[in-house]
Design a protein that fits this description.
Length: 181
């Protein structure tokens, strides 16, 4: 069973576990790039809702998020990885091979949603061209779905700062970090 490799990493009581792609690699990258057969994909797509139901029935809160970027934003991000030396380490051969397969990935995504978006375990779709907003929206959504009791606390108050008591700032020739941004 393909999903079994993830089972040991599921959360125990009181824990939170976040998978990046998780078992859905089988329905996406592995399918599109030919790392598995269509029969293996079909078996996976039929079985995963049953596995997710069992996970949920064991008490795990299972939330599935799809972070969608536009074609233009994907191109912008990959071009930044090519031209910005701070980001070139992120660029892989797989990124380049996958880039040309936009519609194959779109078809794979649509088939995955059709087979695995269930009432018990729905997919939540987040537009992610703006990374900061997407992250904040997902965090807020996640927190809305995890039951918890608010812990009361007193609002802190900043204390008064001490007086300089004769201290004078020195004009030291610091080796400064250049302010590029």
């Amino acid at each position: 069973m393909y999903v079994q490799r993830y089972i040991p990493h599921l959360p125990a009581a009181g824990e939170i576990v976040i998978f990046d792609r998780s078992w859905y690699n089988r329905a996406g990258v592995e399918r599109v790039m030919g790392f598995c057969s269509e029969e293996q994909v079909d078996t996976f797509l039929r079985g995963v809702p049953l596995v997710e139901r069992a996970i949920i029935q064991s008490g795990v809160i299972l939330l599935k998020y799809w972070l969608e970027v536009s074609e233009a934003e994907q191109t912008r991000r990959l071009e930044a990885r090519i031209t910005d030396q701070r980001k070139t380490w992120k660029l892989t051969d797989m990124d380049l091979k996958s880039y040309s397969r936009w519609y194959d990935y779109s078809r794979a995504r649509d088939a995955m949603f059709a087979a695995t978006d269930t009432d018990e375990s729905p997919w939540f779709f987040a537009h992610s061209d703006d990374k900061r907003r997407a992250r904040l929206n997902i965090i807020s959504h996640m927190l809305d779905r995890i039951p918890y009791e608010a812990i009361p606390h007193k609002k802190p108050k900043l204390p008064a700062r001490q007086k300089p008591q004769g201290y004078k700032e020195i004009d030291y020739p610091y080796q400064r970090v250049p302010a590029r941004f």
